[in-house]
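Fill-in record for Flagellar biosynthetic protein FliR.
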Amino acid sequence: MITLTSAEMSTWMAALLWPLTRILGLIAAAPLFGNTAVPVSIKVSLGVLLAAIMAPAIPALPAADPMSMAGFLILVQELLIGLAMGFSMRIVFAAIEMAGELASLTMGLGFASFFDPMTAGRSSAVSQFLALVATMVFLAVNAHLVLLQALAESFITLPVSATPISVGAPLELVRWGARIFSAGLQLSLPIVAALLITNVALGILTRAAPQLNIFGIGFPVSLGVGLLVLSLTLPYLSTPIQNLFNQGIEAARSLVRAGAARTPATAPGR
């Protein structure tokens, strides 16, 4: 007859629970995985499957009872690590959406907004279009698989431990968050520059011929030029978007490396 002690049950529970928490944190925050259109049961099933696959390769876990306060603190820390890794990739999509917002405001399409299920807010039509293009590129270049690979590597670089992570990890995330504004402006710069030239030309035309109704011809001209420039630059956006995905994955890895710089000694394994 097979008998199990409480210590063995706690060991098996911790071997699955703590890695599963980090994985579910990434799935909840990462783009595509954390989309609200994906059912919660699918997300949990994917997390359990990944945890069962990665569990045999995870280093020794800390000697702490999962039901104790120390085990609860480890659980919270693993959740924060997973959320931070997923959020680092979500920043890339936020930069692309910001590029769409800047382009739509310059084109005069700021009023054309729709409900965005990912952010539970309203975003412009151009922003949602660029987000869909980024999602297709995200799948085409297998960035979702590379992100899962970075997650698996994080258990080696930053193993499950009772020791708090370094304060350098949140600082890395804050520094990477500034990329939203710079990357968003860089992606929208062709449209903004073309529309700036268009507005200057319309201003000169209105000055030369005051009888022209600038409000009557300005909006369709700006809208037409914006859509034309967007269609011309769209084939060339795959390379910078792919570079942003690479930078996002590297930011997740650097975040893990910064958190691995623990000053105290790691808790002994079982």
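KEY FINDING: Confidence is low (pLDDT under 50) at residues 263-270.
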